[in-house]
Amino acid sequence: MIPGSGRVLPLRVPVAPGEGIDSWLEALARRNGLSLRALLTDFGLPTPSLTSTLFTSVTSSQLRELERRCQLPDHHLDQTLPNPVLPLRTRQARGSRYCSDCLAEREGRWKLVWWLPCVFACTTHRTLLHDTCPGCGCRPRRLLPGRTRSHPAGICTTRRGDNPPCGTDLRITPANRLPDTSPLLSAQRWIDELLADPDISAAAASLSDLVHLSRWFLHALPEHEIRHLGTVAATAWVERPTKAPPDRLAPVNAPLTAVITHHARPLLGPCHDTAIHRIQQLRTHQGAATALHPADMTMENWKKLSPRMRGRFVHAADAHLSQLDRVRLHSGSPAARIPVPGDAPHTSRSQRIPQLLWPHWTLRFLPPQGLRVDLFRGTAAALLFLPGASSRDKKALLKPLHGHLANYVAHTLQVISQSGYEQVFPALCRIADYLDEHGSEINYQRRRTLIPADTISEAAWQELCFRTNTHPGETSTPAAPGRLLPARRYLFQLLTGADLTDAQHALAWKSPSDRTRYVNFNLSLSLPQRQALLQHAEELLEDLGIDEPVAWEPPEACCQGLALPGPRLDDIDLDTLKRLVITEGRKPSDAARLMKTTVTHVRLALEHIDQGEREWARTTPTSAWKLRERARTVLTASFLDREYTKSGKTLTRIARETGISRQIVVEQAKATGLTIYYSQRPVPMDESWLREQYLTHKRSTADIAAQLGTEDETVRRRFLQLGIPLRPPGVHSRTIMTAKVDKSVPRNIRAAVEGTLHGWLRLHRFQIAMALPNLETTADYLGTHRGALVHQFQRLESDLGHALFHRAAFGKPHRPTRHGSALLRSLATDDIQAMMHSALGPDQITRMPDAATLARAAIRLTTRQSPGPLRPFGDDITAKRIRITGPTLILLRDLLDHQNEQFYGAQIHARTGIDNGTLYPQLKRMERAGWLTSRPEAEDSWLARAPVGCGPGRRRTYYALTPNGLRAAAHEVQHHKPRRRPAR
């Protein structure tokens, strides 16, 4: 073989059944006449000192390369590596156990399972595995096998120092035989079943627990439970290591592993009760179990146990835990577990838990005596935050919702425990688990945020009571809220589960008597009234965008099989209860005593009993509402229109005929929108006729009133009653504003003249203006002002929605845009000209300009007119006025910004960017006008600026603003605002 060539090996060895990769590679090296290290180097594999490193250092790609070079099927070598989830031998016990008979039969090939710490016996040959070589006392295969060419397989090649290899033949090591009925052999068969289980993750968890329980078993097992396991096991137990450092496991040989596995089997098995009983036995043998984890188990081993195993230890210690921890750790049920540090399921659970425990579960959990029901409901709901909490700080856990009950929790737990109803604790844990797994149909946190305190208005409460034939109570006032406040509390508590003993609520009870009134109010609600309140609650949720039921509780199946102190809600005879409370008028407490149940049970059951309809006196608000309801049924809009409007009956007569008081008749008539006449009835006017005359024929109200023989204002009031829009008074009602042009007229002409005044005049002037070069010549020709034309043409452009012409500039006449040219073409037709002359009349028509007028206008367009003299400043400014241009204005602003400084031209040029050819003439002009003073640069400064070897150059002239110049500059800057560009 050529080392490192990467070609297929000519001499190959098949993988023996159950063989590890270390043994196969060793056999392959022997077949090819190489040392194991040389073979590993050729394969590109690491050459570690410890054999166990091979199992963790070989990568998947290296395995595929080995299969290619040895012509093995794909993934065939995967079976030579242990599953990564299974535990290997501990750090202190690296090496492989072995069965001498198996080594002899397999020609020195080593099994993979011998590397697992949980494998201690060979079920084929019924022997305990060997841990060490009988010759040198070392653990076989701890170091990478060497001298494979000089020693056959199955020979111990361990060396100590410079000594030669041991050379002991491990195949002939005397075996430790076990009888067929040995419990140790049975324990190994159980281990083999775990390893053969397709669900290797469950087996790995059990085997890992076995490793980390070993130290505890070395201290916890009583010696009398070892004797029946045989002499080898008893001897190994006497010689067991018990003083290993606490941070690591002591090496455990095969007999000790067999003993530990045999006794750990009940703890690791599927039967939870058997495991709990065995843990309690062992911990009792050690002494009082005051901690969750045993005293002889290191914290490192405790943390590495699986959650199931730690939960079993917690369940076993249930009787020794405080009530708070029993709830927090689920210790009273098979679901017992240690919370993960930092895990806070109560945070998400707060959305699913109300402040008060659900009514049905309150009934099931409440002991017959010793606790107030309202405080118990709040405390029981608070206890639902405890299961799974990693913190023991109950005040911090309960602060968000139940901070006011933190001191009451311990008392509640104590009463429940002393009453003998300890199964309430696992029941609370089951409900918490149900909420974590399935959630809740109600998000209580959202409801606590969105639902307001005024859950029902006073008007809605009165309407609800009237419809359910109940009394709404007196009118609510801040001093005497009546029944409205309890109704709001009832709805708020129904929707949010709020604890009204919590002072942070706006609806909290102010005093014990306040709570008593609420309890009495709850008992007084009739069944229809409760159903109406439930419907109102549904509507409130719908208005808030909450798609949830009004109320919800975890199902009864959550706590199936638990003996709870309270009865179920339906465990009561409602007929008997109705007879005692409704018919005989007994108190709920008396009814509870007679029916041998609790007052809470009676009060909850009364909510499902119909108390019957009550008859109210005529003077009560309920009777008055019924009368008004009858009026709404009888006095409909059609009835009043027939009897009052068409038949002409008076309201007094209608009241007498119907038996309803006139006051209610008047109220109902107003509610239906009926027009009530307190004097002679008006002249009848047909609505369709009025609409036709006013809207279609555009007749005025005065004409219509004259035809009807009434007043103009009467017609206008009738229009308002019928909802007919009145035309605005004044110009908007003129014919010219309401008239429509025939649709054959071009659209741009119609847009300019319809619904507006002087539209034809604007079109006429636009036609003339486009014949002249600019608006100045047009204004002179028409005898008007340029500003008037600008306003008129802007209005025309606004009506048409387009710019009609490009504005003129000096030497450049204005010209129509595309839309303006289209308008001029429309105006040039004979039909439009005839319509224009008819609309304007001869006094407003101006003929088009002739050739001479156009020639004069063209000359004026290209001729500049000299500006007139400037108007002087006022008396407070004696400086002469100068003409202000754009650069002048920039210069003045800069001078005002530096008014207390002397300057020269180059400074101004650098600051403003004004061209020197413009700047210096401006400065001279301002100096002549008295705005500036000037002086030449001082001679020493002038000479100092001269470069070396050159002349000083041009001498600077410094300027400064005079007082009059400062005032003049401020005046001009203030009065020369930036001009707006004309609209296009």
TrEMBL record:
Residues 10-129 form the TniQ domain. Gene3D superfamilies: Winged helix-like DNA-binding domain superfamily/Winged helix DNA-binding domain. It comes from Streptomyces qaidamensis. This is TniQ domain-containing protein. Signal peptide: none annotated. Coiled coil: none annotated. InterPro entries: TniQ, WH-like_DNA-bd_sf, WH_DNA-bd_sf. Pfam families: TniQ (PF06527).
